[in-house]
């Protein structure tokens, strides 16, 4: 069971992080921001945390409203395999997405084109994702007492991001 949930979760996290990175590249390119920002971990951290929170809040709401078949299938399959609540799975995915983004040396990203950026991100994260899948066994060794998703309010975010300026 643990190996299959780890594989499913890593596949979801991989797709999510690649999607975020591609969206950020396109956004920076479209707004004429220097693409070199994508290589700066300290600046990108805020973008990454915010994008992850927004996406997983949308996933949370979709699970309540049952209006996104991709999210329903992905989390439904994970829930069925491990029995953990959707809330628990969302929290685990949030942490894993951030870990994947932060696992790489962003200075090694190839920003010459969207496809090269995608390939370099995937190459840089591959070893970490493999290692992550192997160490996830301990992640599911808790007794899950999560809230039933159907009782949640889709107007309330699950993840809240607060950014403070450091001096």
Task: Looking at this protein, list some descriptive labels.
single chain, about 170 residues, mainly alpha, 5 helices, globular
Describe this structure in words.
The protein has 167 residues and is mainly α. The protein has one domain (2-151). Helix content is 64%, strand content 0%. It is built from five helices and no strands. The longest helix is centred in the N-terminal third of the chain and has 29 residues, at 2-30. It starts with a helix and ends in a 32-residue tail after the last helix.
What helical percentage do the residues reach?
55-70%
Q: Oligomeric status of the shown chains?
A: single chain
| Order of helical and strand elements | HHHHH
Rg from alpha-carbon coordinates: 17 Å
Q: Which structural class do you get from the secondary structure elements? A: mainly alpha
- Number-wise, the strands total 0
**Total of helices:** 5
Distance between the termini: 47 Å
Question: How many separate structural domains?
Answer: 1
Strand content: under 5%
Approximate shape? globular
Overall mean confidence score, pLDDT: 91
Task: Tell me about the largest β-sheet.
Answer: none
């Amino acid at each position: 069971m643990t190996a299959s949930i780890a594989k499913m979760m890593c596949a979801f996290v991989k797709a999510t992080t690649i999607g975020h990175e591609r969206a950020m590249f396109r956004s920076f390119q479209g707004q004429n921001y220097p693409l070199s920002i994508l290589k700066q971990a300290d600046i990108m951290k805020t973008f990454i945390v915010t994008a992850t929170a927004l996406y997983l809040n949308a996933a949370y709401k979709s699970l309540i409203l049952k209006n996104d078949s991709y999210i329903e299938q992905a989390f439904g399959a994970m829930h069925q395999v491990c029995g953990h609540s959707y809330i628990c799975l969302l929290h685990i995915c949030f942490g894993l997405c951030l870990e994947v983004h932060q696992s790489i040396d962003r200075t090694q990203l190839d920003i010459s084109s969207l496809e090269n950026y995608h390939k370099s991100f995937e190459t840089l994260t591959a070893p970490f994702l493999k290692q992550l899948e192997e160490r996830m066994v301990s992640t599911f060794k808790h007794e899950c007492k999560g809230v039933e998703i159907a009782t949640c309010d889709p107007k309330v975010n699950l993840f809240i991001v607060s950014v403070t300026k450091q001096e």
